[in-house]
């Protein structure tokens, strides 16, 4: 049995016999954030701090660095964000990756990391890194778990001032952009209802 999904305007899901009808997911677009998005970014990040996977960010910091974020928009609302933060001329980090509860399980996290990967390649970065308590999401995208010492840019930029330095519970995860093509296609950018704009 097949479920046909059309996420276009006014379309719903048609289910085969015996399946429940579910409402269609709203159309989603990805775009670069602007300083005007800082309050929405702050609210989204703050709402998910209790999950223990994000670091708090100040509104001022987000306004200054908004252009480094990609945002996912549904119904004119920011439902996801991710930042591409340069650590050096060759290494950038995926930070503050979050998708709102109601928009999860729709591939938005993959799409945003995919977009950051394209931006990192365009801007000449050789490696993309992330730090996460659960590395499985990134490993599925082609990242490799490495010792923290393999990302000295992160240690020098952020870790030395962290109270958990040398006792960190996060995994260091790296993608070699020069060799790896996991973020550049592999079907992720072709998800139904996703536009870049």
Could you explain the architecture of this structure?
The protein starts with 27 loop residues before the first strand and ends with a strand. It contains 5 helices and 8 strands; from the N terminus they run βααβββαβαβαββ. An 8-stranded mixed β-sheet has the order 6-7-5-4-3-2-1-8, with helices on both faces. α1 (38-47) packs across α2 (59-65). Mean pLDDT is 76; it is low at 1-15 and 182-194. The chain has one domain: 3-Layer(aba) Sandwich (Aminopeptidase), CATH 3.40.630. It has 197 residues and is an alpha+beta fold. α3 (108-122) links the parallel β4 and β5.
Average pLDDT number? 76
Uncertain ranges: 1-15, 182-194
Report the order of strands and helices.
EHHEEEHEHEHEE
Estimated helix fraction:
10-25%
Domain tally: 1
Report the portion of residues in β strands. 15-25%
- Tell me the radius of gyration: 18 Å
Question: CATH homologous superfamily?
Answer: Gcn5-related N-acetyltransferase (GNAT)
Structural classification: alpha+beta
Approximate shape:
globular
- CATH names the topology as Aminopeptidase
Q: How do the strands line up in the largest sheet? A: 6-7-5-4-3-2-1-8
CATH architecture label name = 3-Layer(aba) Sandwich
Tally of contiguous helical segments: 5
């Amino acid at each position: 049995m097949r479920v046909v999904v059309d996420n276009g305007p006014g379309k719903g899901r048609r289910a085969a016999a015996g399946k429940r009808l579910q409402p269609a997911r709203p159309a989603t677009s990805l775009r670069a954030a602007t300083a005007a998005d800082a309050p929405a970014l702050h609210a989204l990040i703050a709402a998910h701090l209790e999950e223990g996977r994000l670091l708090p960010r100040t509104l001022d910091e987000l306004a200054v660095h908004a252009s480094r974020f990609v945002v996912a928009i549904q119904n004119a609302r920011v439902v996801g964000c991710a930042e591409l933060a340069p650590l050096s001329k060759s290494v950038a980090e995926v930070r503050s990756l979050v998708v709102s509860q109601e928009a999860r399980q729709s591939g938005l996290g993959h799409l945003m990391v995919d977009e950051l990967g394209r931006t990192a390649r365009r801007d000449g970065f050789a490696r993309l890194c992330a730090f996460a308590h659960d590395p499985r999401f990134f490993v599925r995208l082609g990242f490799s778990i490495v010792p923290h010492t393999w990302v000295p840019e992160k240690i020098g930029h952020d870790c030395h001032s962290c109270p958990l330095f040398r006792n960190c519970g996060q995994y260091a995860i790296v993608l070699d952009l020069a060799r790896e093509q996991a973020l550049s296609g592999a079907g992720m950018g072709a998800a139904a209802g996703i536009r870049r704009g």
